[in-house]
Write a structure and sequence with these properties.
- This protein has 260 residues and is mostly helical.
- Helices cover 85% and strands 0% of the residues.
- The chain has eleven helices and no strands.
- Helix 4 (57-102) packs parallel to helix 11.
- The longest helix has 49 residues, at 168-216.
Amino acid sequence: MSAALLAAGCAGVAVALLVRPPARLDRTARAGVSPRQVLPLVVAAVVVAAVVAPGAGALLLVLAAAGFAGVALVRRQRRRRAAEGVSARVLETCEVMASELAAGRAPGECLDRAAGSWPPMAPVAAAFRVGSDVPTAMRDLAAGVDGAGDLRVVAAAWQVAHRTGEGLASTIDRVAESLRAAAGTRRVVAGELASARATARLVAGLPVLALVMGSGAGGDPWGFLVGTPAGLGCLALGLAFGLAGLWWIEAIARGAEEVA
Protein backbone atom coordinates (compact mmCIF):
# COMPACT_ATOMS: atom_id res chain seq x y z
CA MET A 1 0.00 0.00 0.00
CA SER A 2 2.85 2.39 0.81
CA ALA A 3 4.45 1.64 -2.54
CA ALA A 4 1.19 2.44 -4.29
CA LEU A 5 0.88 5.70 -2.41
CA LEU A 6 4.47 6.59 -3.30
CA ALA A 7 3.77 5.87 -6.96
CA ALA A 8 0.64 7.98 -6.83
CA GLY A 9 2.59 10.84 -5.27
CA CYS A 10 5.29 10.69 -7.94
CA ALA A 11 2.68 10.62 -10.68
CA GLY A 12 0.99 13.63 -9.10
CA VAL A 13 4.29 15.54 -9.10
CA ALA A 14 4.76 14.64 -12.75
CA VAL A 15 1.34 15.94 -13.70
CA ALA A 16 1.83 19.08 -11.61
CA LEU A 17 4.93 19.90 -13.64
CA LEU A 18 2.75 20.09 -16.73
CA VAL A 19 -0.12 22.00 -15.13
CA ARG A 20 1.90 24.69 -13.36
CA PRO A 21 5.72 24.66 -13.26
CA PRO A 22 7.46 25.84 -10.08
CA ALA A 23 8.75 29.39 -9.86
CA ARG A 24 12.18 28.61 -11.33
CA LEU A 25 10.71 26.69 -14.26
CA ASP A 26 8.07 29.38 -14.74
CA ARG A 27 10.71 32.07 -15.12
CA THR A 28 12.52 29.90 -17.63
CA ALA A 29 9.27 29.34 -19.51
CA ARG A 30 8.92 33.07 -20.02
CA ALA A 31 12.31 32.94 -21.73
CA GLY A 32 11.05 30.39 -24.25
CA VAL A 33 10.67 26.97 -22.58
CA SER A 34 7.74 25.05 -24.04
CA PRO A 35 5.74 22.23 -22.44
CA ARG A 36 7.63 19.79 -24.66
CA GLN A 37 10.86 20.84 -22.95
CA VAL A 38 9.28 20.17 -19.54
CA LEU A 39 8.16 16.71 -20.69
CA PRO A 40 11.56 15.04 -19.93
CA LEU A 41 11.12 16.04 -16.27
CA VAL A 42 7.73 14.36 -16.27
CA VAL A 43 9.15 11.20 -17.84
CA ALA A 44 11.98 11.19 -15.29
CA ALA A 45 9.49 11.44 -12.43
CA VAL A 46 7.49 8.54 -13.83
CA VAL A 47 10.64 6.40 -14.25
CA VAL A 48 11.75 7.13 -10.68
CA ALA A 49 8.33 6.14 -9.40
CA ALA A 50 8.42 2.90 -11.37
CA VAL A 51 11.88 2.03 -10.04
CA VAL A 52 11.09 2.84 -6.43
CA ALA A 53 7.71 1.08 -6.50
CA PRO A 54 7.89 -1.62 -9.21
CA GLY A 55 4.75 -3.34 -7.95
CA ALA A 56 2.63 -0.26 -8.63
CA GLY A 57 3.34 -0.01 -12.35
CA ALA A 58 -0.28 -0.48 -13.38
CA LEU A 59 -1.47 2.16 -10.92
CA LEU A 60 1.22 4.54 -12.11
CA LEU A 61 0.21 4.00 -15.73
CA VAL A 62 -3.47 4.68 -14.96
CA LEU A 63 -2.70 7.83 -12.99
CA ALA A 64 -0.25 9.13 -15.59
CA ALA A 65 -2.72 8.60 -18.44
CA ALA A 66 -5.52 10.28 -16.49
CA GLY A 67 -3.20 13.14 -15.56
CA PHE A 68 -2.16 13.82 -19.13
CA ALA A 69 -5.79 13.73 -20.28
CA GLY A 70 -6.76 16.12 -17.48
CA VAL A 71 -3.92 18.49 -18.38
CA ALA A 72 -5.02 18.50 -22.01
CA LEU A 73 -8.59 19.30 -20.92
CA VAL A 74 -7.42 22.15 -18.68
CA ARG A 75 -5.29 23.62 -21.46
CA ARG A 76 -8.21 23.45 -23.85
CA GLN A 77 -10.38 25.37 -21.41
CA ARG A 78 -7.63 27.96 -20.92
CA ARG A 79 -7.33 28.43 -24.68
CA ARG A 80 -11.09 28.90 -24.90
CA ARG A 81 -11.07 31.58 -22.20
CA ALA A 82 -8.08 33.29 -23.83
CA ALA A 83 -9.89 33.30 -27.18
CA GLU A 84 -12.94 34.88 -25.52
CA GLY A 85 -10.70 37.63 -24.15
CA VAL A 86 -9.18 38.24 -27.58
CA SER A 87 -12.64 38.43 -29.16
CA ALA A 88 -13.62 41.06 -26.62
CA ARG A 89 -10.48 43.07 -27.41
CA VAL A 90 -11.26 42.93 -31.14
CA LEU A 91 -14.74 44.32 -30.49
CA GLU A 92 -13.34 47.04 -28.26
CA THR A 93 -10.73 47.96 -30.89
CA CYS A 94 -13.39 48.14 -33.60
CA GLU A 95 -15.61 50.36 -31.44
CA VAL A 96 -12.71 52.71 -30.63
CA MET A 97 -11.74 52.94 -34.29
CA ALA A 98 -15.34 53.70 -35.29
CA SER A 99 -15.65 56.50 -32.73
CA GLU A 100 -12.29 58.05 -33.62
CA LEU A 101 -12.95 57.87 -37.36
CA ALA A 102 -16.33 59.52 -36.76
CA ALA A 103 -14.52 62.25 -34.82
CA GLY A 104 -12.39 63.00 -37.89
CA ARG A 105 -9.13 61.29 -37.00
CA ALA A 106 -6.99 59.85 -39.77
CA PRO A 107 -7.11 56.07 -40.30
CA GLY A 108 -3.39 55.72 -39.62
CA GLU A 109 -3.70 57.51 -36.29
CA CYS A 110 -6.64 55.30 -35.36
CA LEU A 111 -4.60 52.19 -36.13
CA ASP A 112 -1.67 53.52 -34.10
CA ARG A 113 -3.97 54.10 -31.13
CA ALA A 114 -5.44 50.63 -31.53
CA ALA A 115 -1.94 49.14 -31.57
CA GLY A 116 -1.09 51.08 -28.43
CA SER A 117 -4.04 49.63 -26.54
CA TRP A 118 -3.77 46.15 -28.07
CA PRO A 119 -0.17 45.27 -29.16
CA PRO A 120 -1.15 42.50 -31.65
CA MET A 121 -2.52 45.28 -33.89
CA ALA A 122 0.99 46.68 -34.35
CA PRO A 123 1.63 44.83 -37.66
CA VAL A 124 -1.61 46.27 -39.05
CA ALA A 125 -0.60 49.81 -38.10
CA ALA A 126 2.86 49.21 -39.57
CA ALA A 127 1.30 47.97 -42.82
CA PHE A 128 -0.65 51.23 -43.13
CA ARG A 129 2.46 53.34 -42.47
CA VAL A 130 4.49 51.66 -45.21
CA GLY A 131 1.60 51.66 -47.67
CA SER A 132 1.05 47.91 -47.55
CA ASP A 133 -2.27 46.05 -47.69
CA VAL A 134 -4.08 46.71 -44.40
CA PRO A 135 -6.91 44.16 -44.97
CA THR A 136 -4.33 41.43 -45.63
CA ALA A 137 -2.50 42.32 -42.40
CA MET A 138 -5.80 42.10 -40.52
CA ARG A 139 -6.58 38.71 -42.04
CA ASP A 140 -3.11 37.45 -41.11
CA LEU A 141 -3.69 38.58 -37.54
CA ALA A 142 -7.11 36.91 -37.50
CA ALA A 143 -5.57 33.65 -38.71
CA GLY A 144 -2.67 33.76 -36.27
CA VAL A 145 -4.46 34.61 -33.01
CA ASP A 146 -7.23 32.48 -31.53
CA GLY A 147 -10.38 34.50 -31.04
CA ALA A 148 -9.45 37.25 -33.51
CA GLY A 149 -11.59 35.88 -36.33
CA ASP A 150 -13.87 38.95 -36.26
CA LEU A 151 -11.00 40.94 -37.73
CA ARG A 152 -11.82 39.32 -41.07
CA VAL A 153 -15.09 41.27 -41.05
CA VAL A 154 -13.21 44.48 -40.24
CA ALA A 155 -10.74 43.74 -43.05
CA ALA A 156 -13.57 43.19 -45.52
CA ALA A 157 -15.22 46.47 -44.46
CA TRP A 158 -11.92 48.33 -44.82
CA GLN A 159 -11.38 46.88 -48.28
CA VAL A 160 -14.93 47.66 -49.45
CA ALA A 161 -14.71 51.22 -48.15
CA HIS A 162 -11.51 51.90 -50.09
CA ARG A 163 -12.74 50.27 -53.29
CA THR A 164 -16.17 51.89 -53.37
CA GLY A 165 -15.25 55.23 -51.83
CA GLU A 166 -17.80 54.81 -49.06
CA GLY A 167 -16.96 56.51 -45.78
CA LEU A 168 -14.68 54.33 -43.67
CA ALA A 169 -16.14 55.68 -40.43
CA SER A 170 -19.71 54.63 -41.24
CA THR A 171 -18.55 51.24 -42.54
CA ILE A 172 -16.53 50.44 -39.43
CA ASP A 173 -19.42 51.68 -37.28
CA ARG A 174 -21.80 49.21 -38.93
CA VAL A 175 -19.24 46.44 -38.44
CA ALA A 176 -18.97 47.35 -34.75
CA GLU A 177 -22.76 47.10 -34.43
CA SER A 178 -22.80 43.65 -36.01
CA LEU A 179 -19.93 42.49 -33.80
CA ARG A 180 -21.76 43.75 -30.70
CA ALA A 181 -24.83 41.79 -31.71
CA ALA A 182 -22.75 38.66 -32.31
CA ALA A 183 -21.00 39.10 -28.96
CA GLY A 184 -24.37 39.39 -27.23
CA THR A 185 -25.51 36.16 -28.84
CA ARG A 186 -22.32 34.42 -27.73
CA ARG A 187 -22.85 35.63 -24.17
CA VAL A 188 -26.37 34.22 -24.15
CA VAL A 189 -25.10 30.88 -25.48
CA ALA A 190 -22.26 30.82 -22.93
CA GLY A 191 -24.75 31.49 -20.14
CA GLU A 192 -26.95 28.61 -21.29
CA LEU A 193 -23.93 26.30 -21.52
CA ALA A 194 -22.57 27.25 -18.10
CA SER A 195 -25.11 25.08 -16.30
CA ALA A 196 -24.25 22.07 -18.49
CA ARG A 197 -20.54 22.52 -17.84
CA ALA A 198 -21.12 22.91 -14.09
CA THR A 199 -23.28 19.78 -14.02
CA ALA A 200 -20.63 17.79 -15.86
CA ARG A 201 -17.94 18.84 -13.37
CA LEU A 202 -20.23 18.00 -10.45
CA VAL A 203 -20.99 14.55 -11.83
CA ALA A 204 -17.27 13.96 -12.45
CA GLY A 205 -16.50 14.80 -8.82
CA LEU A 206 -19.25 12.67 -7.25
CA PRO A 207 -17.20 9.42 -7.27
CA VAL A 208 -14.56 11.09 -5.10
CA LEU A 209 -17.26 12.09 -2.62
CA ALA A 210 -18.56 8.51 -2.62
CA LEU A 211 -15.07 7.19 -1.85
CA VAL A 212 -14.67 9.64 1.02
CA MET A 213 -18.05 8.62 2.43
CA GLY A 214 -17.10 4.94 2.10
CA SER A 215 -13.88 5.52 3.99
CA GLY A 216 -15.76 7.38 6.73
CA ALA A 217 -18.21 4.50 7.07
CA GLY A 218 -15.40 2.10 7.96
CA GLY A 219 -14.75 0.62 4.53
CA ASP A 220 -11.53 0.66 2.53
CA PRO A 221 -12.51 1.68 -1.03
CA TRP A 222 -9.13 3.27 -1.69
CA GLY A 223 -7.33 0.07 -0.80
CA PHE A 224 -9.57 -1.86 -3.18
CA LEU A 225 -9.01 0.59 -6.03
CA VAL A 226 -5.23 0.85 -5.78
CA GLY A 227 -4.39 -2.51 -4.26
CA THR A 228 -6.26 -5.11 -6.32
CA PRO A 229 -6.36 -5.86 -10.07
CA ALA A 230 -10.15 -5.57 -10.14
CA GLY A 231 -9.96 -2.25 -8.34
CA LEU A 232 -7.35 -0.92 -10.77
CA GLY A 233 -9.64 -1.91 -13.63
CA CYS A 234 -12.55 -0.08 -12.02
CA LEU A 235 -10.32 2.94 -11.40
CA ALA A 236 -9.13 3.01 -15.01
CA LEU A 237 -12.66 2.67 -16.39
CA GLY A 238 -14.05 5.28 -14.02
CA LEU A 239 -11.37 7.83 -14.89
CA ALA A 240 -11.76 7.09 -18.59
CA PHE A 241 -15.54 7.52 -18.53
CA GLY A 242 -15.31 10.67 -16.40
CA LEU A 243 -12.73 12.35 -18.62
CA ALA A 244 -14.56 11.24 -21.77
CA GLY A 245 -17.74 12.83 -20.43
CA LEU A 246 -15.97 16.11 -19.75
CA TRP A 247 -14.41 16.08 -23.22
CA TRP A 248 -17.80 15.32 -24.76
CA ILE A 249 -19.51 18.20 -22.97
CA GLU A 250 -16.72 20.57 -24.00
CA ALA A 251 -16.95 19.41 -27.62
CA ILE A 252 -20.71 19.95 -27.70
CA ALA A 253 -20.35 23.37 -26.05
CA ARG A 254 -17.60 24.38 -28.46
CA GLY A 255 -19.74 23.37 -31.42
CA ALA A 256 -22.66 25.42 -30.10
CA GLU A 257 -20.41 28.45 -29.53
CA GLU A 258 -18.98 28.21 -33.05
CA VAL A 259 -22.46 28.10 -34.56
CA ALA A 260 -23.46 31.11 -32.50
